[in-house]
Structure formats: structure tokens, C-alpha cells
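Researcher: Good morning. I'm working through a list of sequences from a screen, and I'd like to move beyond sequence-only analysis. For each chain I'm collecting a predicted structure so we can compare shapes side by side. This is the next one on the list. No need for commentary yet; just the structure.
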Amino acid sequence: MEVTGNTILVTGGTSGIGRALAVALHQAGNTVIVAGRRQNLLDEIEAKYPGIVGMQLDVEDSSALQGFANEVQERFPNLNVLFNNAGIAGMEDYTADTVDVTRAKQTIATNITSVVELSAALLPHLRKQPKSTLMVTTSGLAFVPFPKGPVYSATKAFLHNWLDALRMQLRGTSVEVLELAPPYVQTELGGPQQAQDPRAMPLDAYTNEVMSILADPGKIEKGEVLVENVKHLRWAERDGHYEKTLEMFANF
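Model: Good morning. C-alpha cells for this chain:
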């Protein structure tokens, strides 16, 4: 992926990693469209960063995705990068007498269904571009799950597997398939306390390292964008510390 001169759609771009990378990509010389649910946040981003375009989208609303994809293609015919970043997290307690799966169903809809559907809607357009990229945010938890958040971890493992298969399907096309697998980062994905957790990687440091990796294709192996802080999770099983890491997560 070139780090400048693109037209990029970023879902989940109003907060956290999505917002930070949307701003960094905009500042690197790309046309950036940010999609999110909350219009007030889209307005705030547009005002703070002139040139970024905000478009309202609730990715859980499956019926709206095709219409949104059509509108994006009409407004931005040079769109050549889809960055599927929207995601939510939650916890489930399967030791409880009654297990509430409401959040789990929302997590699957947001983290899996919307990613597959929006990608399917825009890939025909991306394939027509001379060079294009589909990038999806997964997680280090795709490789070692967080026991208190089993569905979230499983959605990211699904995406990792899906992207591997998709990369093979698209290898004869103009579309590069990238997986962005973050470690534990100081965002509010897991609640306000996560943004201040000293165990988490600072968001600015994560953003800067990702941008440096994207700028140097030699740092990307097998289509995976991995900062140093996540590699112990990516290679936990290979390196023989999977069970130890899983036990650590159980006590996190």
C-alpha cells in the first residue's frame, strides 16, 4: 500500500485506532473519508481536520451497507482503499446461571457481518483500480484469546482466517489484502479505563509505528501489519508460550 495519494474509506473512524490512523493518513497526503455512527463526532473531525470527509453509517444496519457503498463510489470514484476498522468489544460470563448474549450478537454483527458485507459491496470497485488495498483491523487476541471476552477474540480469529483466504482469492487482482493486528492499545474500546491503562501501548506510538510499517513494504510479511508489541501474541503458539499467555490473560 502506498502511504500517499490514495482515496481511503475508514470505518469506525471517529475514535481510537480508526480516528488516529485516519488523521495520520490524511496528513500523509491522502483523501480520507471517515464513516461512523455519531454525526456530532463526524462534524467535529471535519472541523478539526479540514479535508477529511465524514459520512454517517451504522455498520450494524445491514440494510444500509449497499446503499452506503453505492454513495461512496458515486462521490469518490477514485476510492482505492477500504480500511474496515469498525469494531466493538464485550465480555460474557458463561459461568453465570443466565448468560446474556445480547452484546455477543452485536459484536458478531459489527466485527464480522458488516466487514464481510461492506467488503463484498466495494471489492468490485476496488478491483477496477490500478492499485487498491483492503485492510481490516483484527487483534492480537486473534492468536491468543482473552478468556473474559471470548466472542470478541473469536471474531478477530475469524477475520484473520477470512483474510488469509481472501488474499489467496485476490492474488491475481489489483487488490492487496492487509491485516492490521493491534496489541492492547490505549483506546476506549474496552472502556474509559483502557485509555489510561499503563499496560497498554500509547495510541500515538502505535499509530506512528503502523505508519512506518505501511511506508516500508519490506516490514510486512504475509500481509500482516504487526508492531513489535503484538508479535509475542502472533507467534505465541509457534514459540511455545501460548498456554502461559492464555493463563496470564485469564488473570488480567
